[in-house]
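Q: What structure does this chain adopt?
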Amino acid sequence: MHNAANDPLRPRFTAFVRERQQDFYKLAYSYVHNQDAAMDMVQNAIVQALGSLHRLRQPQYMETWFYRILVNACLSYLRTAGRVVLVDQLPPQSAPHSDLDRSMDIDRALDQLPPKLKTVIVLRYFEDRPLQQIAMMTGVGLSCAKGRLYRALQALQRILGEELEELQQLEAKNPAAAGTYRDREEPLR
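A:
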């Protein structure tokens, strides 16, 4: 049995976790939408990573390796514990959309995606990961990661497009409440 306390990578991993813990929490929270569960996911991933640190053959990929562990922990949680999504418990919005409302719309749309598609969106646009790294983190080839990203963006466009149409209809009925996206230089998509 391997003693994780004596692993030569442990100090580097510990520093890495301290430096990036907020990023890990945000990623986990984007999956589980619950503060306690997100902290548990990060903690579980850290414990799991410490236990298998000796198996990391290429230390330069520590970040990719750990993100994969964390994403898998979140996906496992969603499969076994069900989804706790507090945003869905809020009443529907009828007022014009603020930035917070748009953010909540995006969260709801992401929650409608299958986990594999949600993962590529979160890693690409919330974590700013390059596609090659996303492929490594998710254990698929680059072309598969690109395909998932394309399908995820199409699904989000369809989901958010339906909501945008509803907003446009609401705005047409109540022009005084408009000011949401007509004032923008770029149209919402």
